[in-house]
Amino acid sequence: MTITVGEIKYTNAFPFFYYVDRNKLLEKDCHFLIQTPATLNREMKAGRIQVGPISSFAYAENVDEFVLMPNLSVSANGPVGSIFLYTKRPLEELEGSRIALTTTSATSVHLLKILLKQYVGVNVTYDEMDPSFDEMMQDHDGCLLIGDEAIVTSWREEVETYRYDLGELWKEYTGTSMTFAVFAVRKDAIARQRAILEELYTAFVLSKEKNRKEQYASMIGHIQKGMGGTTAFWNHYFSNLVYDFHTQQQKGLLLFYEKAYEEGFLPKPIESIKIWGDVRTHHSSLM
Hints:
Function: Catalyzes the dehydration of chorismate into 3-[(1-carboxyvinyl)oxy]benzoate, a step in the biosynthesis of menaquinone (MK, vitamin K2).
Shape: globular
Radius of gyration: 19 Å
GO molecular function, one term: hydro-lyase activity
EC number: 4.2.1.151
Strand content: 15-25%
Distance between the termini: 21 Å
Structural class: alpha/beta
GO biological process, one term: menaquinone biosynthetic process
Number of strands: 11
Number of domains: 2
Pfam family, one: VitK2_biosynth
CATH class of the largest domain: Alpha Beta
Number of helices: 11
């Protein structure tokens, strides 16, 4: 039976996938869909993807259909390094401004709205746009970029704007960490495809741990061939990211869900996070 694995196209999720043996997965009729978080969210909701990282906000929208793989996330306890609000004026002067939001995100767009309204105390209007800094800033007072587009824009020396890291703002205002992506599994897929899903989970964990043990050195070299950037930049970037999903990360995420419900972004409160508790790990043949 075919299984489709979602894969976020951005470098921040790459540690989970770098050492996974995709050829062996293909032999098991397991395929990857590499896309933006927003696309993966839609595909998993529709049942065309059975497992993979999605926006943490999308899990809250589909809490009855999904469970989360243990101890896998893309989180930050402070600066995340790839989710930036660029503005022409300081945060406190954004009242009545227009902000362009990337169409590739779910968590970050809602996080920004919560931060600006509840913590900064400004009211702004939003437009969704494809992630192009120059086009977004042409007729707007600011823009939100995520992932590799945000990273590449941060390298542009000619960009003269204020830049705010949403992970850093969340930490400053709430004192908690922020989880941007989680690894979700469709409940109906577990009933049909438990064995391969458990193999995948083990492969994700082993890839994460091997990258961390190597301090991401091999993976960074691979990334530099496509994106550039200095080794020092990438070392700093990955050192700020948290790839676990312990109590600290879950606490911060539940606070985000609470604020999202207060703003009417979620149809019901999320009081707990459902983890796939009986998933078994074993030696994986997928690395």
